[in-house]
Each structure stands twice: as C-alpha cells, then as structure tokens.
Design a protein that fits this description.
Layout: H1 2-19, H2 22-57, H3 67-85, H4 87-96, H5 104-113, H6 119-127, H7 131-142, H8 151-160, H9 168-185, H10 193-211, H11 221-227, H12 239-251, E1 272-279, E2 286-294, E3 297-301, E4 311-314, E5 318-322, E6 330-335, E7 347-350, E8 353-356, E9 361-365, H13 369-384, H14 387-404
Antiparallel strand pairs: 1-2, 1-9, 2-3, 3-4, 4-7, 5-6, 6-9, 7-8
Helix pairs in contact: 3-4, 5-7, 7-9, 9-10, 10-12, 10-14
C-alpha cells in the first residue's frame, strides 16, 4: 500500500512538471535558486553570530556544579586577553593556573591550536631570541603539515598562522624554520634547505612587486626565472615550478593576517614618531600632525592618542630631500621620476572612508634643524631598507658559495 502511495505521489509530481512550459520551469528554478541563496545567507549570518559569541562564552561554564571547570574557563579567558595585549604575560598567566605546561611543546601547541589569539603577538613571541622561544618556534613550525602541498600554498598557510615582525633577524629565523619543515615534509623537491629558503623569499618579493601599486615596473615571468637562476645548489629550479609559482602569485596575492586586536598595535615600536607640520594636497594649507614611522610607511594622525591615522605614505620607490632655501627646517618626500601626473600612491581617511591621496610630493616642516635631520635620516633608511631583500641576498650568497665548492 505504501509503495502504491509513493508511486502515486511521484506520478502526480511528474504530471505537474509535464504540464509546465519551459519558461515556467525556468522561472520555478530561479525561484528555487533565490530561496537557496537566501537560506545560505541566513546560515552565514548565523555562523558569524555564533563565532562572535564563542569568545565571551569561553569565559563561563554552563555547568554551575562544576566550579573547577568554571574557574579554568575564566582563567583561560583572562589569559587569552592578556596574551593579546602582551604575549609573555599571557603565557605566564596561563602557566600559573596550569592551563599550559612550562615546556616549549605545550606553548607551541597552544599558539598553533588556539583560535582568536593576536597573530601579531604570536609573531612577536616566536621571534624572540631566547633559547626557550627558539625551541617554541621550531616546534610551532613542526605543527604544520606541508606534505603534498604546493610550495606557495605551504608558504601561504605558514604566513597566515602568525604576523611576521619587522626585524630582519626574526624574519630570518622564522623563514629558516619554514624551509626546514617544508623540506622534511617533501623530501627530494629541493636539493637543500637553503634553496627552499631562497625561493620562499623570492616569491614574497615577487608578491610585493606584482601587487604593490607603488611599484611601476612589474616583473615578468622571464625576469622571475632569471632572478632565480642557479640557486638550487648551483642548478636551476624547474621552469615548470617557477612558472606555476609566478602564475599563482600573479592571480592570487598573498593574504597576510591583519591585526585582529585593534589598529593601534600596528604602530607599536615605531622607528620614530613626533609632531610635524604637513602641507595639504588640494588646498595648500599647513596642519600640525602626529607622525609615526614604521614598517616602511609614514603615518600621520590628528592627535597623538588617535588609533586610526588620517593618512599614510608608503615609502617604497620614493625619495626625500631637505629644502634649505625655504629656511624653515622643511623637507620633501617625492617620486624621483615623476611629474604632476605621477601621484604618490598614498591614502587618507575622508568622511570615514579610505581615499587615494592627491599629492605629487609631500612637504613637511620640523621644529628644528636637528629634528629635521633625524627625520630625514630615518625616512631615508626606511626607503632603502627591505629586510626580505637583504635576507634573500645573504642566503643567495651562501647557496652560490656552497655550490662552487
């Protein structure tokens, strides 16, 4: 009986569809697709709401009878908050309550497995040159499984797990551990760890050159292949490998983690900061701004206490010079090869939105000769300093030296 009923229902459905015209069927399919998309959006919204509540809920235990579990959850919640402000203090607090063992492996697993930690603080902690931190870094890299991953996918995954610090020595140690781990997971692809290291830096620089709007002369595939010639322990990398890497980076730029804990952390440990007077772009008026120099970029704020800059000036491919003829301790940041058509690729916030700046140069005034000289010195160093390129060249020399022996 049930079989006959099911057959009857299916038969009625088939007849209903058979009487519908092709336009009607198309309309019905579009309606179903729209309903599906609406449901999918609702699911995405619900998931986002759930994620936004999870962090707060971790601080409370729903089982009122389990006081110890409740205390542990609260200690963990507070420890994670402290970590996102200061990694060492957060680790110490978690160890004090027995939530992390005082061993490099326990800390490495915590950094790798725990969600909603500040990736800036993870990077700072892993970059320390203390023996304990160095072992944590090695074991943190060991947590990654790079087996059968393409080289750029492995590098993307590694660089997404923390935020690279700005110091060259820290970057060197972190990338050295990546090369070690990738070669362990994929034996035979590279002739040495140094070859892997050099190619990793090469594609990071390629990513910057291809996708940084300040770089006008974009590298070609031929340039990229030529740049890496002879670096696989004296031999050449496979042309197929280099071609696939080039196309992958060209189509999909590296996505590096932003700071999840607030924009102010971007400006911690600046190379220099202080009050300067800046000339406007459209209207040539002068405004006193708080300037911060860090990460090869010059940021300016309305107030020293502000966390969001009014604008920023990427310093790559720019020049700086003093303007002694003005007699006002003034200097200028400008594009070396440009006329007024070559605007500096700067940006500023206007009406709550980021817009492109309209400067062909920036004129800035200091309060004294000594202050101007120091600013010019620091800005010039930031313009020429590229830790990725320096480390790449250093390891490239080692590869060439070992291959010639």
């Amino acid at each position: 009986y049930m079989g006959e009923t099911e057959w009857a229902v299916e038969s009625m459905a088939d007849q209903a569809w058979s009487y519908m015209t092709i336009p009607a069927i198309s309309s019905k399919l579009r309606e179903i697709q729209q309903e599906k998309e609406a449901l999918f959006k609702e699911i995405i919204t619900l998931e986002a709401n759930i994620r936004s509540l999870q962090f707060e809920l971790e601080g409370f235990d729903t089982n009122a009878n389990d006081e110890q579990a409740d205390q542990n959850a609260k200690h963990r919640f507070n420890g994670m908050r402290k970590f996102n402000e200061n990694a060492k203090k957060g680790i110490a607090a978690l160890q004090e309550h027995g939530l992390i063992e005082n061993t490099p492996l326990s800390v490495a697993k915590f950094l790798y497995e725990t969600e909603r930690l500040s990736k800036t603080q993870i990077g700072e902690y892993l970059g320390e040159n203390d023996p304990f931190n160095l072992e944590v870094l090695r074991l943190f890299a060991q947590q990654h499984s790079f087996a059968k991953l393409t080289f750029d996918d492995a590098l993307r995954r590694y660089l997404w797990s923390f935020r690279l610090p700005g110091e060259a020595q820290k970057i060197d140690r972190m990338m050295d551990q990546f090369a070690t781990r990738y070669c362990d997971c994929n034996p035979g692809i590279f002739s040495s760890k140094d070859s892997c290291y050099v190619l990793a830096f090469s594609i990071i620089m390629l990513n910057t050159s291809l996708h940084n709007p300040s770089v006008k002369n974009k590298p070609t595939l031929e340039t990229f292949i030529s740049m890496n010639r002879g670096l696989d322990n004296g031999s050449n990398f496979s042309p197929d490998l280099l071609t696939s890497l080039f196309e992958s980076i060209r189509k999909t730029p590296f996505k590096l983690p932003e700071d999840e804990t607030g924009e102010a952390l971007t400006f911690i440990n600046p190379e220099r900061n202080g009050w300067l007077v800046k000339q406007g772009g459209g209207h040539k008026t002068w405004h006193r701004r708080w300037f911060t120099l860090c990460n090869n970029c010059l940021y300016y704020f309305a107030q020293e206490s502000d966390t969001r800059p009014k604008g920023h000036i990427p310093l790559e491919n720019l020049e700086v010079r003093t303007l002694p003829q003005t007699g006002k301790f003034m200097f200028e940041i400008y594009y070396e090869g440009g006329d007024d058509a070559d605007k500096i690729k700067a940006a500023k916030f206007k009406d709550g939105r980021m817009t492109q700046g309209r400067h062909s140069s920036y004129r800035i005034q200091a309060d004294s000769q000594a202050e101007m000289d120091e600013w010019v010195k620091c800005i010039r160093a930031a313009m020429t300093k590229n830790p990725f390129y320096q480390l790449y060249c250093k390891r490239k020399e080692l590869v060439n030296a070992s291959s010639s022996c």
